[in-house]
């Protein structure tokens, strides 16, 4: 009985140590890249969740507006966020864990498609773009004025703004634009522009073991085809 008294705290300690650690994963509503659904969490959401699980962690998905998701990740320690493009403005704000894949942008419009950012800057009076997104940063760096940008929350329906004539074009990732492409009047898509790598990122203060284990797990998914199967599940057949 006395032996049990000594062993019980040790057993409880070992049990607690064996419990998988829970990691918060922040993401916006930006299908097909990230979404909240019973059927899945989008390309980057599913990829990050699988990588965390393979690395031995539990996942607590936090779905919220994109500016708030970025702010919360920066405020916390050991929190992950997807999908985050690695831009100059963001470089020193996060720990960059692993590149998922390159991501391209395009202008969606009812007019003839443009071939460059400069042509779009000269032609379009008003462009819809996601608030706090890499696309907004790209257009500002390309010389678009504040008055030319119609910032909207991720998850809104900018294609309807284009079709109603409220904006001249929508600048977004080609995957998001194609995902919202429905049976209405045909939209023209510009050339693929501004490629940037799409990352799983972590808070600036991030456990090196967490970074390494998630990085290695994602690269393992790339090698065994699991990552490509996730992409193929969500990319529309157009």
TrEMBL record:
It comes from the Bacteria. Keywords: Signal. The keyword Signal applies. Residues 28-235 form the Solute-binding protein family 3/N-terminal domain. SUPFAM superfamilies: Periplasmic binding protein-like II. Residues 1-18 form the signal peptide. Pfam families: SBP_bac_3 (PF00497). InterPro entries: Solute-binding_3/MltF_N. The keyword Oxidoreductase does not apply. This is Extracellular solute-binding protein family 3. It comes from Pseudomonas fulva (strain 12-X).
């Amino acid at each position: 009985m006395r032996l049990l008294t000594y062993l019980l705290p040790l057993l409880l300690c070992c049990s607690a140590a064996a419990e998988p650690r829970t990691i918060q994963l922040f993401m916006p509503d930006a299908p097909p890249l990230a979404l909240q659904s019973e059927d899945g969490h989008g390309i980057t959401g599913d990829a990050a969740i699988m990588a965390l699980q393979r690395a031995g962690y539990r996942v607590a998905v936090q779905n919220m507006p994109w500016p708030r998701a970025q702010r919360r990740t920066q405020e916390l320690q050991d929190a992950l966020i997807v999908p985050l493009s690695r831009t100059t403005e963001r470089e020193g704000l996060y720990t960059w864990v692993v590149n998922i894949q390159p991501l391209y942008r395009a202008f969606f419009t009812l007019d003839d498609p443009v071939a460059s950012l400069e042509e779009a800057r000269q032609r379009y009076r008003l462009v819809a773009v996601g608030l706090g997104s890499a696309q907004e940063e790209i257009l500002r760096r390309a010389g678009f004025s504040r008055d030319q940008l119609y910032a909207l929350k991720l998850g809104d329906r900018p294609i309807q703004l284009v079709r109603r004539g409220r904006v001249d074009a929508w600048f977004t990732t080609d995957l998001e634009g194609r995902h919202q492409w429905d049976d209405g009047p045909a939209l023209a898509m510009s050339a693929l522009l501004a490629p940037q790598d799409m990352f799983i990122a972590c808070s600036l203060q991030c456990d090196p073991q967490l970074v390494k284990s998630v990085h290695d797990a994602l690269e393992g998914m790339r090698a065994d085809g699991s990552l490509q199967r996730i992409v193929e599940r969500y990319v529309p057949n157009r």
